[in-house]
Amino acid sequence: MTHADFVADTGIARQRHTLADGRDLIYFDDPDTKLPKHRAPDLRELDPRPVTARMRQDPLSAEWVSIAAARQNRVFLPPANLDPLAPSTPENLSEVPSNYDVAVFENKTPSFGPLLTDPDAPVDLTDLSTIGLGRTRTSVGRCEVVCFSPESEGSFASLSVTRARTVIEAWAERTHALSNLPGIEQVFPFENRGEAIGVTLRHPHGQIYAYPYVTPRTQRVISSLESYGPTLFADILAHEQSGERIIVQGAHWTAFVPFAARWPIEVHMLPHRHVPDFAATTLAERDELAVLYRRLLRGIDAIYTTPTPYIAAWHQAPVHARRSEIRLMLQVTSPRRAEDRLKYLAGSEAAMGAWIGDVTPEQAATTIRAAIDRADAADASASGSATPKRPDSTFPTTCEVFEHA
Fold first, then answer.
1. What is this structure's pTM?
2. Which of 60, 171, 185, 245 is positioned for an S-S bond with 365, CB 3.0–4.6 A?
């Protein structure tokens, strides 16, 4: 697929607005929304947007570091009545002027952007790959916030299936739109969940970064493809589907604990066909994902008696490079290695990048499958059903939890 092949779900309405300082705001409405079509304007008096940050190159790794000093003063764990992502009220003039189902807006203190191009310091991949001392470039790009719900507490796992599907539609639409902006080389949707991860807002939300370069992690994947060959992702999927680490599987997606998992809790999920990014998924693939991904996260939350901190990272192919070889992939990681213990990245991992696992991937898969069973049973009990079912699911799917001796 090309970037022009994006197929939108017409049952999920979009409304585009502009915040008081010129930032874009887009509402995505559930198919069964009860919200009125009218949305209030942003009447706040806001300071001008911060200047675009600058990147500095590390000559030892050739990696670029964005020095976004304006982020140092961002809101930190505010009380619910001052939640900046909640719908605006006279007492709390927030980032979102009206009530909403899902809302996406440009980050007030971005790591990249708001400039998309800088005529005084043009950026291209050839320029960025050159290594030198004292090299700087403008951190062009875009950073967006994706509010999953108007509620001030929760995560993707706490959404209804219908709302989860709306969030996935927002990821697909924004991936398509951001990929078509000038200067963007890679688009990255993600969710940070829990204070142990470093979250500064408890509101259920994620972010989307649109980078001016191909990220270091993806560059390593490209190196692996050059060494192994273009069937790497397809072969990984086939290998995992024949093994004992599968967590859940549907008609379009398979989730598994990877063979060489680094983290105590780590799950990858791949689409069954080659899909470079969310924009290239079909409506049926998004429908199933709303059920399966939500169910996976609810299971991860059920491992212990309190919610699990995690990073849910959606790795997508670069906008221009290797799109026929790099496949969309979810990577959920958590440092939680016991009820009251976290894995900290100490000397070997943090300094040398040499990982030591604390839990075998096979045991981790068994633990997560059992937790999904408990989450399914809790959902069934809450709904009064004798057998597990997915709450308010309107999307047909064939998802299984795998049992292994």
1. 0.92
2. 245
